[in-house]
Amino acid sequence: MFGFEDNLLLKLASVLNLFTANNMQEKFWPVHLQSIDVGAALEKMLYDDSTAGETFELYGPREYSLSQIATMVDNEIFKKRRHINLPKAVLKPLAGVLNKALWWHTMSADEVEREFLDQVIDPTAKTLKDLNIEPGDIANFTYHYLQGFRSQNYYDLPPATEKEKREDKKYIHVLDEL
């Protein structure tokens, strides 16, 4: 799930060095938390008697890898974050020690383990579409959630249009940030 104060978009946008163990290849289907997607689905499941005894999987409309979302975040905040890949055997114990030694959340050994698990959708489970809810794509919400992470030079720029994104791919940009 993603939304305000989540552990997906904020984690990718806020830290300068992000430690990972799986080259950011974890695949999942992000679903929007604060729009009507999840809340409306839970309300329908609670009050609609036809949903009793049914299994539901609430997932987004498209599969992404963590690397794709990190690129999306970097493009939205106009900054390049460094992602340092460490072996699982090194990062998992380190994350466990950091989680116990520091009072603020950094990462846990469980999060490192989950990097190696892709989300698998159960084909027999009911989805948001069975509840007549169309899930929102994470690409449509990144501007709204990440605008605060932009520098003051780019803060008021609107999100790039599809035409601007295609034009931007044609050129190599060299930026010197001091």
Automatic annotation (TrEMBL):
Q: What is the official name of this protein in its record?
A: Uncharacterized protein
Q: Which GO terms describe its molecular function?
A: protein-containing complex binding
Q: Can you cite an annotated GO cellular component?
A: mitochondrion
Per the record, the domain of life is Eukaryota
Instruction: Identify the InterPro entries for this entry.
Output: ComplexI_NDUFA9_subunit, NAD(P)-bd_dom_sf
